[in-house]
Amino acid sequence: MSYVFFPGCSLDGTARDFHRSTLAVAAKLGLELPELKDWICCGSTAAHSTDPLLADALPAKSLANAGGATVAVACAACYSRLKMANHHIAGDTAVRARVARVVGGDYDGLTPVRHLLEILCREIGLARIAASIRRPLAGLKVACYYGCLLTRPPEITNFDDAENPTLMDRLMETAGATPLEWPHKTECCGASYSLTDASIVLELSNEILAMAKAAGADCIATACPLCQLNLDMRQKDIEARFGRQYQLPVFYFTQLLGLAMGCPAEELSLRSLVVEPQELLAAKGIGC
Amino acid sequence: MMEHKDHTPAAPEAIGAVLVCGAGITGIQASLDLAESGFKVYLLDSSPAIGGRMAQLDKTFPTGDCAMCILSPKLVECARNKNIEIVTLADVQGISGEPGNFKVRIRQNPRYVDLDKCNACGDCTEACPVSLPSEFDRRLGTRKAIFRPYPQAIPNVFGISKAAGRAPCKASCPAGVNAQGYVALIGAGKFKEAYELIRERCPLPAACGRVCQHPCQDQCNRAEIDEAVNVRDLKRFAADYIHANPEEYPPAKPAAAKLEAKVAIVGGGPAGLTAASDLALLGYPVTLFEAQAQLGGMLRYGIPSYRLPKDVLDKEIQYILDLGAEARTSTPVADPKSLLGAGFNAVFAAPGAWISRTLGIPGESVAGVWAGIDFLRQVNSGETPRIGPKVVIIGGGDVAMDAARCARRMPGVKSVRLACLESRAEMPAHAWEAAEALEEGIVFHNSVGPVKIQTAGGKVSSVAFRACTSVFDENQRFNPRFDDSKTSALGADTVIVTIGQGSDWGGCIAAGIFAGGDAVLGPASMVDAMAQGHQGAEAIDAYLRGAKLAPTNGAPASETASNPRPDAPRRERIKMPQAAPAARIGDFTEIDLGYSPEQAMAEAQRCLACGLCSECMQCVKACSAGAVCHDQQAEEHEIAVGSVILTPGFEEFQASLRGEFGHGRYANVLSSVQFERMLSAAGPTGGHVERPSDGGEVKKIAFIQCVGSRDAARGNGYCSSICCMSATKEALVALEHAHGQQLDVSIFCMDVRAFGKEFDSYVNRARDEHGVKFIRAIPSRVVETPGTKMPRVRYFDQAGVEQHQEFDLVVLSVGLRVPPSVREMAGRLGVDLNQFGFAQTERLAPQATSKPGIYVAGAFQEPKDIPESVAQASAAAACAMDQLASARGNLIQRHEYPWERDTADESPRVGVFICHCGHNIASVIDVERVAGRAAKMPNVFHAEASLYTCSDTNQQHIKDMIRKHRLNRLVVASCSPRTHEILFQETLRESGLNQYLFAMTNIRDQCSWVHKDDPVAATDKAVDLMSMAVARARHLKPLETGQLPVTASALIIGGGLAGMTAALAIADQGLEVHLVEKEAALGGNLRHVHTTLERADVQSYLSGLVAKVESHPKIHVYLDSTPASIGGHVGNFKSVLNVAGREKPISHGVVIVATGGQERPTAAYLHGQNRHVTTQSKLEAALAGGNLPPELAEKPNPTVVMIQCVESRNDEHPYCSRVCCSEAVKNALEIKRRLPRARVVVLGRDIRTYGFRELYFQKAREAGVLFVRHPEKSDPVVVEESGKLKVTVHDGGSNRDLVLRPDLLVLSTGIAPAAGNPALSGLLRSALTADGFFLEAHPKLRPVDLANEGEFLCGLAHSPRFIDETIAQAQAAAGRAATILSKAFLEIPGQVARVNPEDCVACATCVKVCPYGAPMINSLNKAEIQGAKCMGCGSCAASCPARTITLQHQEDGALVAMLDELLVAGVNA
């Protein structure tokens, strides 16, 4: 199967560490991820909460360029938007026609879209990943946090068990870490309120951090730039606001996987994490 | 169904038998009614026992009865009824024929236990090593592979669960060793039994447990979860255990037979030894010829002793020789044919493969180059082959590993290097062996091929290699390719070549010569060799017996079982301890150190039991009745029936599909069915409410309602009807179990749907007296708090505030749905299903399916509770009776008994039988001693202890003993009379003795079971119980059972829907009906109903019904009439009717009360004052025929407000009228249909549109009807403001007051009981409920029976209900009535009270105390008991001041004798 990679704006900006670590892991696996030609904004939030047509048209413009390849996505919001647009366009001829009119070309809504987790676990396969693990993350207790967008709505994303997804858990297990059974895998971090009412974000993200801590996590693994940002960058604010001490590094799952595959720390951009992971990694004997 | 009957009159050849599919309470009731009315019944169920879902319940609502206590007698009744044939573990495959004459194909699945032989003693379950999750307990507990779903199960026999395929471990063993079996036995700590099982197919278990290549383990399903079960090591453990504890295993028994024909076996390897063992066990004299000095073949000479110590092998070989095989070692046999001439009748040739293959390269014949096998043979013979310090092994297989590791252990060896063609990944050696070799310091050189062995001075100096680029070609054939440009060399003084072996066996073929082992297969594994040995032995045995060998079963069955528990928790494999690598290369001592028993058991318990039953045959050994038969097969057969009733019931919604609640993910989230099992005293926790996560105390419980109900998103848009009540019940039972401990219960729900009889008061009691909180919210999520594992429930409270509450336990009230297997069955029968998979029916014919002659009842028709199901069961039975009336009695079995012997002049001659009940009694009580004591008692002429007193053979024996000793009293000391008394009474009757000459005492349930720990005292108690029974027996008298003629007609009071339906259902069976209606026309309340919710035309249905009733020749209609008096009793009532002022006496056998009800008049909410205030029924009338009430006709978008529960569910009228919510929805929908812009607002506390009616509630909301929920005690307020209506209501959803100004205000007034109920209740001596409706005999299981025999009720006389429910009840009453009217005579039992009139002073105390109205003061002014009414309870006898009433069969003399025996004779003895 051949892939083209849709980085989205986050991976070009705030989540450059996600981008780099994704490419590092892909290189280790011999997985080629050429960037999708002429990709544009996925339309997340700003478009989809204001204009349904725009919300479908933006992804359509990008997806039409895939040229038969599967579109690989790392950002959960992009993934959600691309899947949604496909669903609307492929399922409703009127929508398809409207979209064709505004983007200036017909798009059938059938370009396959896969999240990195799906590609790694289902298409590359855990066996192949296991074979490329060089430094198992032994003793690292990870709370795998999927966020709200990957699994919902299940009939559209068809990602994994909507309430208790396990793809990332299995991946972390393969990397030698101990994924935790915890209940907040798909809780909302409040991302859509990031700009309008950050206090909601603090409250919701605090719930997630508190639950991860209570479950005994050493760190959190995420698959969404906004989740990572809220849990990591705002962790200090959350601690101050709620009088708690978490000190939970919040990784992208690709960073942890890269560590286990023996990628050098700089390829994984570990330094860009706000809650510094070095102490934890050193304590667990995980070199980087 | 009436339509069907009219057009398809029962054909003359109609068959008087009915198939009832599904043996829950519904199927049971239908069967009992049919069998009692003269029809043969096949009661079929796919499960191993009847009882269905009710058997799983702890208690019932609202009565609080123990479900099992009220169900169990029904089960026993079914079992006892000769005209009910119970067919369990069966499915319907297809149907042909037509109504009245169907042929139904039945598939009978195997039980693996003979129904007729099993005595349910339970010894098999004790012996069974396989624990499986118990489906009955919804996986909260475990059960054995041979099991009975619950102790009261009928048929009371065990059964075995087997998977569709065989366990992969077992299926993959070439030698046919039952791996799952011995693993299970080891897991249960039964090591000896495990060893025995292994030995059946593996004569060398300790060797095999060390060296087998274990295909079993490679196929293990556990690998999907974590890692395969360590099957081989477990086999080794079992063998080692017996070797270490030989006293546990008896020495070999000589063969059963001594046969003449002699067999020679050439080759003492595993194939030869296996054949020798098999043949010796069969009784053949066997001689083993072995070329080497000792037996064992490759096991001895090929396998190093660090893997298989020689003493282990020696022991096992000795065991085979002990069977009687003779060994001639160092005796090569060149030509096996010569043995045939030398006195042997057959030869098994298994000489092995001992010729090492050579490389064919220069230098190979130089000193220092060894053939692998020769090297190993020397090492394993205890010699020290002379090799140099630098060893190179050529080859990458297991023999190469053995050679390398042996060389590593040779003194003076410095380095061992191994070179092979294959890459590391391709090496053919087992991965674990390569790993162990690496650990021991052996160096691998992969992907090289030897070119030349260099020599120096006639000795090896090095080996030259070239690179091997690939070993296999595209077709995966061995075809190595080399790159000559890349060469290398390894210095060596010794080269050991291990590239395979061959045989010089020429394949000698002649009659009487059989061959096997490596010589035939080429080098193969030990287990393959054993397989060959078995086949050889079988072939030789067949040859010598002159029999043809059955087709070989060498190939394992193709179908293997899949993983039965994919969700099993991970549990790491327990590795067998090993010696450290550094320590082990010093010598040849064994590397693997063996399991401890604890380690072995723990490892064995990782087994998933893929085949379910492991076929270890322990049950066969344990069963003294010889009932277990593992080779049963499924069978198909055909039965002929006139009609089919479908009662397959329901299954619960799978709670885990609502993932947000975490069922299956969080230990303390249970389904309501699981919680019910937890509440049950017979359940997995013995009735203790505890947290499954840790068994901890429960202080807070939450119920979440509508999980899988009212959930259109998951395709379950209907309401499951029972969950509100069942959660309330479970809450109350949990509170009861808390014994005063603090227990906080919250029920999260949308509505509280307590619509049934007495339901609302039950809910109110739970709320007001027991503090159960009903929270109007459906939680959005449940999460588990880490650490405490408390489920945390998130919801929005009434004030709209988000709440998080932690509970110890969350119970999900799962809805009802139709199991896929039932949908498939319906498909095979050609019965239409509705969108949800329930049987498609019409409201006006609720029991008729789409296929004539097939009826439906119970939850498969629509979700419903027990009483509605039971009523439908009787209704469906009535439909079938109706159709098959002409065939009634054709197929029933009547038992003919011999003439009763007159024993009046005989002195008591008692026979006593003491039952072992397998181990149940005899393992505690010394039954022989009890029998011995009985034999010494006066009047006892025979006493014995028997294994199973109830068995068929023993009944014959009892008859023989009665004849032989001319016994006239029988005493049985065994189990419960409840289940077994009738059996022995039958035996008495068949012996010509009166059935009352029998005394039974229970020395099991209340003796051996409860005094397990004190056998001596238990035996004493059993002696006392037996002695008392004998004392009683001496006083028993034969009693006559009376017969009472039946007047075959029914009096039906009430000519509405209920009365007319019942009348037709009875009259169509050819029986007479007197139908009494107080008004001048038939029709009753139905005259005011125009359509159903589903828009069926009620009025034309009614006119059709009236026409049929009026024209029916068997129905006498009396209008303007009421009953003036009702006298007599069941079968023979004498009543007087007041017919338009004139008296008319009639005789009848039964009474059916169908007096209906009335709309409750109201003056509330300005009704009667403001003309725009109306009632739902008036609105319906106004809307009928396309009209509109004036308030609506005048405006384009009028506002209609409906107020629910007007003067209902309040203190004065606490009950719910059931129909008003749907009535409101119906009228609201009709208004919206006509005036889409009308504003319709329904105000109420709950909307109770249960079952499929929920869909119309949904439709109404979709149509824009607004439903406003107001809290309890805050009813809407209606005032008139300047001629306009103003309604103020508090909206619970928004928590604020709403003001509405309706053009039309519609009141949902409730249903009141009929005004005449109190008077009629007096005539019938039949009680009314506090609400004024008639009180049925039992709210759950006798919903249409009144307390007095022969009196029934239906329709609104019972409680408020819908048309379909009334029709069902009316037909049910008819069906119940038919059980009496279809008989010519009623039997009066012998145990009735009798008055000695001489001392009677007619004080009428007996008349007052009798609950059944049996005593009366007769014309002689003396008390007299009417036998037909007497239930034999003894109340009158106990209360008679003159002591002149005797309860027959329970006379004082017998009781005094029993006490004498216990207190006087017993003490003296």
Topology:
The complex is a heterodimer of chains A (288) and B (1469).
Chain A: E1 3-6, H1 8-12, H2 16-29, H3 52-63, E2 70-73, H4 76-91, H5 93-103, E3 113-115, H6 116-131, E4 141-145, H7 154-157, H8 167-174, E5 178-179, H9 198-214, E6 219-222, H10 225-233, H11 235-242, E7 250-252, H12 253-261, H13 278-283
Parallel strand pairs in A: 1-2, 2-3, 4-5, 4-6, 6-7
Helix pairs in contact in A: 2-12, 3-4, 3-5, 4-5, 6-8, 9-11
Chain B: H1 2-7, E1 17-21, H2 25-36, E2 40-44, H3 67-80, E3 84-87, E4 90-98, E5 101-108, H4 123-127, E6 131-133, E7 142-144, E8 146-147, E9 159-160, H5 168-171, H6 179-187, H7 191-201, H8 205-211, H9 215-218, H10 231-244, E10 263-266, H11 270-282, E11 286-289, H12 298-301, H13 310-322, E12 325-328, H14 337-341, E13 346-349, E14 355-356, E15 369-371, H15 372-380, E16 390-394, H16 398-408, E17 415-419, H17 431-439, E18 443-445, E19 448-456, E20 459-472, E21 478-491, E22 494-497, E23 501-502, E24 513-515, H18 518-521, H19 526-545, H20 581-584, H21 597-604, H22 618-622, E25 635-641, E26 643-646, E27 651-652, E28 669-671, H23 672-679, E29 700-707, H24 723-737, E30 744-749, H25 759-768, E31 773-776, E32 781-784, E33 791-796, E34 802-806, E35 809-814, E36 816-817, H26 820-829, E37 854-856, H27 866-883, E38 910-915, H28 919-922, H29 927-935, E39 940-946, H30 952-965, E40 969-974, H31 977-990, E41 998-1002, H32 1004-1008, H33 1015-1035, E42 1042-1045, E43 1049-1053, H34 1057-1067, E44 1072-1076, H35 1098-1111, E45 1115-1118, ...
Parallel strand pairs in B: 1-2, 1-26, 2-3, 10-11, 10-13, 11-12, 13-24, 15-22, 16-17, 16-22, 17-18, 26-37, 28-35, 29-30, 29-35, 30-31, 38-39, 38-40, 40-41, 43-44, 43-49, 44-45, 49-62, 51-58, 52-53, 52-58, 53-54
Antiparallel strand pairs in B: 4-5, 5-25, 6-7, 8-9, 14-23, 19-20, 20-21, 27-36, 32-33, 33-34, 42-63, 46-47, 47-48, 50-59, 55-56, 56-57, 60-61, 64-67, 65-66
Helix pairs in contact in B: 2-3, 2-27, 2-41, 6-7, 6-10, 6-21, 7-10, 8-10, 10-21, 11-19, 15-16, 23-24, 24-25, 27-41, 29-33, 30-31, 33-44, 34-35, 34-41, 36-38, 38-39
